[in-house]
Amino acid sequence: MASRGGQRAGAGRKPGSGRYGEPTRPWRIPQSLEPALAAWLATHADRARGLPGALTPLKPVGVRRTLFHPASRVPAGFPSPADDFFEAGIDLNEHLIVAGHEAQTFVVRVTGWSMVGAGIHDGDEVLVDRAIEPRDGTVVVVARNGELSIKRLRLSGGQVTLVSENPDYPPVVWREGEDWHFWGVAIRVLHRL
Predict the structure, then answer these.
(1) What is the domain extent for residue 140?
(2) How many helices, marked H, and strands, marked E, lie in the chain?
(3) How many domains does the chain have?
(4) Residue 55: which residues within 8 A CB-CB, separation 6 or more?
(5) CA angle 133, 51, 124 (to 5 degrees)
(6) CATH code at 154?
(7) pLDDT tens, residue by residue, 163-179
């Protein structure tokens, strides 16, 4: 009786022959995270080959409950006597992330100056919410032909355009046959002073 199933000798992709040039192994991931992982792999592969990218690998924000207790409000003039009664802590998850979107909110680090007019500088970290639908005028993270980018979305007369917030960078218009995947909407920018 002939055996069925199982691995056949010499079958499958040869180790090291894939896109990443090294052996691979299968993983089971939730379907909702598949686009995020694909975008991360696309960015990681480009960086491994030394190509410049617009965003560094992604990481989930998480829902860790850390409270920060401000010692005082910082007035622009003189301190207020009401500061003596200010005791509440600040939960950054509640402050920065839309309630219910915790598992779909990620942080990306931006490289380059194409969005400086929107207050996004080289090295800034941007919170991206994948649960928000991209609309005209929102700042989006898009995987364009496998490369991640952050731009302002413009929809006009059936035309989809990604616009930089720096006049040195021309707009990018979607063309038939191009592979664009809107990965998420930028909701906050974090940068050092």
Answers:
(1) 41-61+102-190
(2) 2, 10
(3) 1
(4) 43, 108, 109, 110, 111, 141, 148, 149, 150
(5) 50
(6) 2.10.109.10
(7) 999 999 999 998 888 88
CB 178 within 8 A of CB 168: no
Q: What is the CA radius of gyration of the chain?
A: 22
pLDDT tens digit string along 81-116?
Answer: 655 555 567 777 788 888 888 888 888 889 889 999
Catalytic-residue membership of 114: yes
Alpha-helical segments (H) within the chain: 34-48, 92-96
Pick the catalytic residue: 17, 32, 151, 164? 151
Contacts of 117 (CB under 8 A, 6+ apart): 164, 165, 166
Residue 137 is assigned to a structural domain of this protein: yes
Three-state SS for 85? helix
In the block, residue with structure tokens 């969005």 = 115
Q: Is 151 a catalytic residue?
A: yes
Distance of CA 39 to the CA centre of its chain: 9
Which is the catalytic residue, given 14, 72, 114, 149? 114
Pure H helices in 77-166: 92-96
Among 119, 117, 118, 93, residue whose Cα is nearest residue 107: 93
Name the phi and psi angles at 24, rounded to 5: -125, 165
Q: What is the pLDDT of residues 14-37, one digit of tens each?
A: 666 665 566 777 778 777 777 666
Q: How much is the pTM?
A: 0.59
C-alpha span between 109 and 127 (Å, rounded): 9
